[in-house]
Amino acid sequence: MKKLTLSTALLALTASFAMAGSHSVVRMGTEGAYPPYNFINDDGEVDGFERELGDELCKRAELTCEWVTNEWDSIIPNLVSGNYDTIIAGMSITDERDEVIDFTQNYIPPEASAYVALSEDADLMGVIASQTSTIQSGYVAESGATLLEFATGDEIIAAVRSGEADAAFFQGSFLAPIVEESDDLVFVGEPVALGGGVGVGVRESDGELKAKFDAAIDTMKADGTLNELLIKWFGADQNTF
Fold first, then answer.
1. Is 90 within 8 Å of 50 (Cβ atoms)?
2. In this structure, is residue 12 part of a structural domain?
3. How many CB atoms lie within 10 A of CB 179?
4. DSSP structure class, residue 72
């Protein structure tokens, strides 16, 4: 009985390694709630900069990819547990995250985070809303302000408008179109540079997959395609390579 159990376990493990190595279908994990990086369009499909980028990376790497959505606060644990094979969800590269998963080179250069509020004299040492498990929420927690965390970027904006928070602190490219289209929100304080840019997250055991995406990102940087996508989705003021 023990021999049978051991043989079964070894067979399952071998099959698992074979699947991990082949990546016949690579499951691209994203949030689907972070425009223009990623969002769900009117047809119920993943859309945005990272959808277009991810599809192009898979094409260049000769990989068959499918898209999976997952809530932000559990996106790393569910990558590690095998629910998908990558994270391509506006995730900044940090030393803390790099201890748990691995990252490709960045496909978005480091960019500034910013505060938005209802008035220019908002108290930035008061109650500050940010998305949970982000480099922005970590920054607020260390700043001495009172951190108020929410699951999505939309909720931090709602907290400012309702008066629950004095200001929101998040990635500038997410906040910019919201401020531009609003008649009540303004940027306050100085921009803050955080993180090492945004990369594709993979399991630490998936070095071959990481190498394929790194090579594909290299070609997109070299031929200018990546810069074209950045400008298309984030505007002419976006930092490029």
1. yes
2. no
3. 15
4. G
pTM of this prediction exceeds 0.70:
yes
SS3 content of the chain, % helix, strand, coil (to 5): 40, 25, 35
Locate 171 and state its tokens. Answer: 């990635």
How far apart, in whole angstroms, are the C-alpha atoms of residue 83 and residue 68?
Answer: 9
What gap in Å lies between CA 219 and CA 209, rounded to an integer? 16
Check whether residue 172 and residue 105 sit in a common domain. Answer: no
The CATH number linked to 123 is 3.40.190.10
Domain extent, residue 54, equals 25-109+196-234
Domain count along the chain: 2
Q: Are residues 32 and 148 in the same domain?
A: no
Which of 162, 177, 194 represents a domain boundary (last residue)? 194
Q: If you search the block for the tokens 């990623």, which residue do you land on? A: 38
Residues 78 and 143 in one domain: no
Q: Angle at Cα 163 formed by Cα 157 and Cα 168, nearest 5°?
A: 35
Is 228 part of a structural domain of the chain? yes
Q: If you average pLDDT over every residue of the chain, what do you get?
A: 91
Residue of 50, 59, 11, 6 whose CA lies nearest to 28: 50
* E strand or H helix at 236: none
Q: What is the pLDDT of residues 101-135, one digit of tens each?
A: 999 999 999 989 999 999 999 999 999 999 999 99
Give CA–CA dist 59/153, Å, rounded. Answer: 30
Specify the 3-state DSSP secondary structure of 131. Answer: strand
* Inter-residue long-range contacts of 33-37, CB under 8 Å, 24+ positions, other chains counted: 33/72, 33/152, 33/153, 33/154, 34/72, 34/89, 34/90, 34/152, 34/153, 34/174, 35/174, 35/177, 36/173, 36/174, 36/177, 36/233, 36/234, 37/89, 37/90, 37/173, 37/174
Can you give the pLDDT at residue 24? 78
